[in-house]
Amino acid sequence: MYVKKVAVVGAGTMGADICYTIATRGIPVVLRDVDDAQLARAQQHIQELFDGRVGSNKMTAMDAADRMGFITFSSRLEDLTGVSLAIEAVTEQMRVKEAVFRELDRTLAPLAIIVSNTSALSISHLAAVTGRPDRVAGMHFFYPAHMMKLVEVIAGDHSSDETITTVMRLAEEIRKIPVRVKECPGFVVNRVLMASMAEVLRFKEERGLAAAEIDQTITEAKVAPMGPFFLADALGLDVAYEVAQHLTQELGERFRPSQELKTLIAEGHLGMKTGRGFYSY
Ligand SMILES: NC(=O)c1ccc[n+]([C@@H]2O[C@H](COP(=O)([O-])OP(=O)(O)OC[C@H]3O[C@@H](n4cnc5c(N)ncnc54)[C@H](O)[C@@H]3O)[C@@H](O)[C@H]2O)c1
User: Fold this and answer.
1) Which residue segment(s) compose the domain that 250 sits in?
2) Is the CB of 15 under 6 A from ligand 1?
3) Contact residues for 15 (Cβ-Cβ < 8 A; gap 6+)
4) Count of domains observed in the chain
5) Consecutive sets of 10 residues in the chain, 281 residues long: mean pLDDT of each?
6) Residue 209: helix, strand or coil by DSSP?
7) Which of 3, 25, 65, 144 is the 20 to 30 Å CA partner of 176?
8) What is the largest CA-CA distance in the chain?
9) CA of 38, closest atom in ligand 1
10) Distances from the Cα of 259 to the Cαs of 56, 204, 221, 222, 256, in angstroms?
11) Is 88 in the pocket of ligand 1 (CB under 6 A)?
12) pTM over 0.90
């Protein structure tokens, strides 16, 4: 199936970058959120990404304006008319995603595909709340979505081959490297990442170390391009917490989020997006 118009639902950390990535390839895209302030922030963020490309001579100002014109920022469901593939990137909570899947199922044409950017939740479960389980799949981007090449493509129990082929092709069209993975909690990358994240959080608590000490050791040893605490702040501590909670329920205690993570979230410190997490910004 040829994807003529895309919707990205959820204009947060991931949704805005995914939307930008799609628009840069000249594909019309509607960025939808229920929160107008969030849509305004996303628009500003995307404009800054285009400005950055112009500033570094990777794009002309005219091309940037042209590509920005491919995006419709909207909180109105009516603007989803003509969308052939919707990427759900809302809050990582099953009940929120279920509601969005039901809404998209009611709104989009019967042949349209709905994919989720969930970090860990079940694609088959989400598919089951729609009347089109064959046209539902996972399309998991990584942070920051406009830079990271890998996209995990996840087939649910009833995803059709045509759906998976369409999602793989769209990923390639927007210059990503799609990898088909089996459905399981956390898929591949987050299962590995969250297991190591849980261990490093426990290690910090046990030893009473500062986040910066651990981050510095890990980056200097070239174990990872950035330290786990800086990464957690960038991903969003609330997102990391929800994923860890889900993996704990599904796979066991080794994923349990640390007390420090819970305390930071309870105090409203969600990482870069609120100006404070393990670090202050
Ligand atoms: N943050 C990451 O690094 C990362 C990486 C890969 C995947 N993900 C996944 O992407 C999804 C989004 O994560 P995020 O970090 O962008 O979250 P976020 O909190 O930054 O943004 C979520 C957005 O969803 C919007 N939203 C909530 N309910 C909605 C609804 N009913 N309709 C439309 N919009 C609604 C919120 O207003 C908010 O703007 C999650 O499933 C997360 O697990 C996140």
Assistant:
1) 190-274
2) yes
3) 8, 9, 31, 33, 42, 87, 89, 90, 117
4) 2
5) 95 98 98 98 98 97 98 97 98 97 98 97 98 98 96 98 98 98 93 93 93 96 93 96 96 94 97 97 96
6) coil
7) 65
8) 55
9) 39
10) 43, 11, 27, 28, 9
11) no
12) yes
